[in-house]
Each structure stands twice: as C-alpha cells, then as structure tokens.
C-alpha cells in the first residue's frame, strides 16, 4: 500500500482545520464492505466517518467494482459511468470549498471501465498528487510515467513510508533525477508505526474471528505479524525480534503459544479451529 487513503484524509482534515468546507469522494470503489443491503468502499466509509460527512452514501463511491460491474466490463467500457460520477460530484460539491478525490492504485486502475486515472482527472477537472510507496530503489519508471500521462494536471509527487533515517540519503539520490525530468516533487514522508497499525478488535473483525479471552486488550495496537511454524527451541529467539505483534499459529501449538507470550505479543491468531491447551489457558 502507498498510503494514499491516509494522505487524502490528512489533506481533507488539514483543510477543515483552516476553516474550509471539505468533502471526500472515491469515484471508483474497489475495497467493498456491506452497508445494510448495499455495498460501500471501505476507504470512503472511513473517510466520511472521520470527516463527519452527512450525505447519501451512494455519493461516496458512485461506481463500485462489484462482480456485476466486472462482468459488464468484459464487453468493453461500461456506458453511463462518467455521467454517474459527474452527477455524484455535482451533488457532493454543493456548498463545499474543496473536494478530495481518491483514485484507484496505479495508472491502469479503472481502465477496463473506460475510467483510468487520467480520464477521471479530465472528467472532474482535478489536479493530481501522485503517492508512491517507499522501496529501497524508488519507482523511477512510475514517476516518469505519471508525469508523462497526467502532464499539467500533475501538481506534485510524494514518496510515503520511508524509514526516517533513510530520508536524507534518498533525497540526495533523487535530486538529480527530479531535476533532469522536471518532476513536481513535494518530498518524502516518514514511516509512522501507528498509522500502519490496527487494533486487536479490528483485526478480529477482519478475520471474522472469535475472542477467547483478554477482552481488556482489544484496543491494543498490532504493528506487525509473525508466523509460528518453527520448533519450540527456536520460537523464543524468533519472537524476540519484533514487538507489538500478532502471532499466527496452529491452535494446537501450545509450545509456540507460550513462547510468544514471553515476548511483546498483542494477540495470538489460532488456526485450525483448535482450542489452546489447559496450560496455555492458565497463562492467558
């Protein structure tokens, strides 16, 4: 993930703090969750909750990548989608100073529908900020491709999620590249553990799991994941490598459970529909 949802929300909240009226829309929703009898994009749902937007949910993501929509796109670009987006945007824009639009990932997202990023930007007359995930070697081809595709609509680029200690060297490495191609480069954002974390409760909900014990720890933040599939002798040293983690292992691996609980472990994710041993229950 590049973190474009978090950056979109941060921009919207920043505008709100300046006293501006802001709405958010994800023209094409791909991360679907059921909302009553309908579907809604998860990113749009979270953004609307965070921003306190009160409007018809259908405006949050006017085009949803349901199975029916995917099947329809097999016959070519689906007619009527541009009008649907423009209609939703017009209604959502009423009385607002700023509208934040979040695109699908990559330049090719939405292409089969006839709605790639470039077309959505043209359709809505939007400016584009491109967000790139951090990699040891930056996505140089992607940066040039976005610049070439979006042209004057591209107002900035951001690399997100870089370890803080690597930012100065990455800036120096990128400087001649940015200058040679004339890229509108905003800068590099540091990795934030909290933003990349999830609560134990949210993790349980996502997995449709059952909480066996430790309900008082459901608000604890999980920062990373480890798999417990090794011998009991190697388990303790393995789990000491990472803190604030969730350990995924079989429900019958009592030795792994106990080793994980000796380290900084937020929760155990037990597979196989198997319950812990009595010894583990006592430790839990």
Automatic annotation (TrEMBL):
Domain DRTGG: 202-277
Extent of the signal sequence: none
UniProt cross-references to SUPFAM superfamilies, sorted A to Z: HprK N-terminal domain-like (SSF75138), P-loop containing nucleoside triphosphate hydrolases (SSF52540)
Alphabetical list of InterPro entries matching this protein: DRTGG, P-loop_NTPase, Phos_Acetyltrans/Butyryltrans, Ser_kin/Pase_Hpr-like_N_sf
Name assigned to this protein: DRTGG domain-containing protein
UniProt source species: marine sediment metagenome
């Amino acid at each position: 993930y590049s973190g474009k949802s978090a950056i979109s929300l941060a921009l919207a909240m920043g505008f709100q703090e300046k006293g501006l009226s802001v709405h958010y829309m994800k023209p094409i929703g791909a991360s679907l969750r059921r909302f009553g009898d309908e579907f809604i994009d998860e990113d749009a749902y979270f953004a609307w909750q965070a921003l306190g937007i009160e409007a018809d949910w259908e405006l949050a993501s006017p085009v949803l990548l349901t199975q029916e929509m995917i099947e329809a796109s097999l016959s070519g670009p689906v007619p009527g989608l541009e009008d649907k987006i423009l209609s939703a945007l017009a209604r959502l824009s009423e009385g607002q100073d700023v509208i934040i639009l979040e695109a699908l990932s990559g330049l090719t997202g939405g292409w089969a529908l006839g709605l790639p990023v470039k077309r959505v930007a043209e359709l809505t007359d939007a400016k584009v900020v491109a967000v790139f995930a951090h990699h040891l070697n930056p996505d140089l081809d992607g940066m040039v491709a976005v610049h070439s595709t979006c042209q004057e609509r591209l107002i900035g680029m951001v690399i997100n999620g870089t370890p803080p200690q690597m930012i100065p060297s990455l800036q120096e490495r990128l400087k001649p590249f940015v200058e040679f191609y004339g890229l509108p480069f905003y800068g590099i954002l540091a990795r934030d553990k909290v933003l990349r974390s999830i609560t134990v409760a949210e993790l349980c909900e996502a997995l449709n799991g059952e909480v066996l014990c430790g309900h008082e720890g459901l608000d604890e933040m999980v920062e990373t994941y480890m798999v417990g599939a090794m011998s009991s002798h190697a388990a303790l040293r393995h789990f000491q490598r990472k803190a604030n983690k969730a350990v995924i292992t079989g429900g019958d691996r009592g030795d792994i459970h106990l080793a994980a609980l000796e380290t900084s472990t937020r929760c155990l994710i037990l597979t196989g529909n198997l319950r812990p041993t009595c010894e583990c229950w006592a430790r839990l």
